[in-house]
Acyl-CoA dehydrogenase (Pseudomonas vancouverensis), 329 residues
Amino acid sequence: MFTEAIEKILADLCTPTRVRAVEEGGDATLLWNALQDSGFLELLTPEAQDGAGLTLESLLPIFTAFGRYALPVPAAQSIAARALLRDCPTGMLTLAGSAWRQADGSLCAPQVAFGLLADFALVNLQGELLLLDCHLARRQSMGVHGSQCATLFWPAESVGKAIGNNGEEVRVFHAAIHAATIAGAMERVLDMTLEYCNDRVQFGKAIGKFQAVQHQLSVMAEQVAASRIAAELAFSAALQVPQLLPAAIAKARTSMAVPQVSAIAHALFGAIGITEELDLQLFTRRLHEWRISEGSESYWNGIVGQAFLDQPGTCASHFVRHVALTQPA
């Protein structure tokens, strides 16, 4: 029910034209207000607090939909923030899974998703949970065309005290969100590529009929399916916050798929595939950005690998199916 309602809003308001407009500095208020006024930012909030009280499993199709539409506002991050912090301020909230103090006492949060747009950030500072006003920070754009990601610098006097000791949950939850949105965006990229290959005619037949192209499409489909399954792992628990190992597996596996899926899509589209006018780049740019956000596959594979080595005598399939799903976050 919630997924269908959100999909309708996204189909009406989150068009490629609007995504481009927001990327170019246009107003994101209409889209944000539609999601906020409909109550969809409170999906993880308990029913006793006027929320929907959903579990992670129910959220997966919603987060993948955000990826399929290249949603240019931090709705997923705001939903997660409300699960991690009950008393949230009004406005766009994002997550910063890692931050550190600099020599002068200021705080740096690198490559914050939607850092150019967000009003507030829920920040993990070495395990401490901070809620910071983004308007007090210096926002440094990443310099990538259309990206809303930014590194944020808060002066020491604006940081304040920690509001909790569950900061690591920010990093884990954000990794799971990126896994879901990567899976959704790759589904959209695959659909676009299949449609193009069935419509584009060369030598008297659709290029999708050529065996070499079919092989490339099958590789894409394999990577997209594996990514969806991995994302499901991160959102399989009847909890409100993802567990560490399932989230790590999901983020690593989806990030690993990004270079291959994006490269095949652009190759099959040919010369048109690199143009700004084609909607494909709205998704592949985000895929590459989400791949490295909160750590690439190398970082998360390291966490999974160490956990596996800590279970001597356990085979990989048993580890994924049983051990990874029972380890605490």
